[in-house]
Design brief:
By secondary structure, this protein is of the alpha+beta class. Helix content is about 30%, strand content about 20%. The longest helix has 17 residues.
């Protein structure tokens, strides 16, 4: 019985580690942009006059972006 429970725990833990992918976010590729957006239709992103780029949340944070005030 203990071995079955241990096996279930190991399989569940392994699967949950694989599904911890960061969500994608959107940024405006301007020189002065400092925010990331969870939704491509965000009010703050609609003012962007440059290319909009989709990237991982981790990457956006690494380049110094913070969450948009409309989505916080």
């Amino acid at each position: 019985m203990f071995q079955k429970l241990l096996l279930i725990y190991v399989v569940t833990a392994t699967l949950s580690l694989g599904s911890s992918k960061q969500p994608d976010v959107y940024i405006c590729k301007s020189d002065t942009g400092s925010r990331y957006h969870l939704n491509k239709d965000c009010h703050g992103l609609k003012r962007c006059k440059h290319q909009i780029e989709k990237m991982s949340l981790n990457k956006a944070k690494k380049i110094g972006r913070t969450i948009c005030g409309y989505e916080n």
